[in-house]
Design a protein that fits this description.
Layout (H helix, E strand, L loop, with lengths): L1 H24 L13 H4 L11 E4 L6 E4 L3 E2 L13 H13 L4 E3 L8 H10 L7 E6 L1 E4 L2 E6 L3 H15 L6 E4 L8 H13 L6 E4 L3 H10 L4 E5 L6 H4 L2 H8 L2 E5 L32 H19 L5 H10 L14 H8 L8 H12 L10 H5 L4
Parallel strand pairs: 3-4, 4-5, 5-8, 8-9, 9-10, 10-11
Antiparallel strand pairs: 1-2, 6-7
Helix pairs in contact: 3-4, 4-5, 6-7, 7-9, 10-11
Bound molecules: NADP nicotinamide-adenine-dinucleotide phosphate (NAP).
Length: 384
């Protein structure tokens, strides 16, 4: 067991050494082209010892160098029905580190608190070599979410201290505002983060589900590293509402959350799937009602058909499509399974042309998506 751990550590150190070298050679983000992604193109010769490529979110002082696929930790305790026990989750997170993943995503509201606690317990030992990003904004009182937003400066400061404690860190690699607070202007939030950065408590910051206008206002006060919003083949709003455009213009990275549409694009969900009534928000989402699932299976079929002749699974098609959109995009799929981790990381084994991706996009676009992504209450919390 101990010897095994030693081997794992040697492989991890080898990977992180290569990441350090890659930092020096990473090209400027705005010079990078938004063409199709291949392992060879992105992995310069300095990276040949690592399994996956790396990308940079943000520019200048806001630049944040991470694995090109992150790991969404949420489903290991929250909102994705049953999950393995804590030790199994820790083993899987360690496996992801060993495979070269350096970006792990959690939030205070996941659980609440249980997900940050898990990430802290599992990943604190890799402090400084991998990054656990977390999020503030949803009000949590006595370990329970209230459904309200609270991004007042004093609350952000308190949440920051509490997250540092749970994650067992001295500074947060990236702190996102989870949802905009209608009572606190973006400039005030940005200034609070700028102050926390000066104090060394936060290194980078980001915002989730905000409009292009909010991004501009916040970025002017404190440069943003990443915007994290929902983006996948069944939800392409950020292509239309100016968010991706403003990220490109200002050199801000983009982190698509739920890149497999909460597992749906992986093909393992059908109209008979039963979601845990106590721990799964999918049962409340219009798009996950049985009739919507039945109708939307046609989209999964297109991904499966497209993947079949290329040896790809539908999950790999979905992730590959996002990765080829721009070199400053870093999806964060979540999983509780070693086989899915492997499958997702193996997306980098495939190299498709722009024409092939266009063919996929055209075929998917021809099928109307049935059901909204959020219910009315959740939709109210996101900026258009
Ligand atoms: N900022 C925000 O507002 C926000 C909102 C939601 C999520 N997030 C972040 O985004 C992360 C990912 O989101 P998500 O969990 O909602 O959605 P997701 O990554 O699209 O899907 C996760 C689901 O897909 C399944 N899956 C993973 N790989 C698969 C594969 N290769 N084939 C088939 N199924 C596969 C997982 O099940 P198994 O466990 O069985 O693999 C899991 O239930 C979260 O962990 C969280 O960090 C952020």
């Amino acid at each position: 067991m101990e010897a095994n751990k030693g081997i794992n550590r040697r492989r991890f150190l080898k990977a992180t050494a290569a990441i350090g070298t890659a930092l020096a050679v990473q090209p400027a983000i705005d010079q990078a082209k938004a063409s199709h992604t291949t392992r060879h193109e992105e992995s310069s010769s300095t990276l040949k010892n690592v399994d996956i490529p790396y990308r940079t979110l943000g520019t200048g002082q806001a630049a944040f160098h991470v694995s090109a696929l992150g790991f969404g930790v949420m489903g290991m305790t929250y909102n994705r029905s049953q999950h393995p026990d804590k030790q199994a989750c820790i083993r899987l997170l360690h496996e992801a580190v060993e495979r070269g993943v350096t970006l792990f995503d959690t939030a205070i509201i996941y659980g609440p608190l249980t997900n940050e606690n898990l990430a802290g317990e599992a990943l604190a030992e890799f402090k400084g070599r991998i990054n656990v990003t977390t999020k503030f904004g949803h009000e949590v009182i006595n370990g329970k979410g209230t459904g309200r937003q609270d991004s007042r400066p004093a609350t952000i400061r308190r949440y920051c201290e509490e997250s540092l404690r749970r994650l067992r860190l001295d500074s947060l690699p990236l702190f996102y505002q989870h949802r905009a607070d209608p009572n606190v202007p973006a400039e005030e939030v940005a200034q609070t983060i700028a102050d926390l950065m000066k104090e060394g408590k936060v290194r980078h910051w980001g915002m989730c589900e905000v409009s292009a206008d909010t991004i501009r206002r916040a970025h002017a006060v404190c440069p943003l590293t990443a915007i994290q919003s929902e983006y996948h083949l069944m939800h392409r709003l950020v292509e239309e509402n100016g968010v991706l455009e403003v990220c490109r213009e200002l050199g801000i990275g983009f982190v698509p959350y739920s890149p497999l549409n909460r597992g749906f694009l992986g093909g393992g969900i059908n109209e008979y799937t039963v979601f845990d009534p106590h721990n799964d928000n999918r049962q409340t989402l219009p798009r996950f009602q049985p009739e919507a699932i039945r109708a939307n299976m046609r989209i999964v079929n297109v991904l499966q058909q497209f993947g079949r002749t290329r040896g790809m699974t539908s999950a790999q098609v979905a992730l590959g499509w996002l990765l080829q959109k721009a070199p400053w995009i870093v999806p964060i799929p979540g999983t509780t399974k070693r086989s899915h981790l492997e499958e997702n990381l193996r997306t980098f084994d495939f190299s498709l042309t722009a024409e092939e991706w266009h063919e996929l996009e055209t075929a998917v676009s021809a099928i109307p998506v049935v059901g909204d992504r959020y219910n009315a209450e959740q939709e109210r919390q996101v900026e258009g």
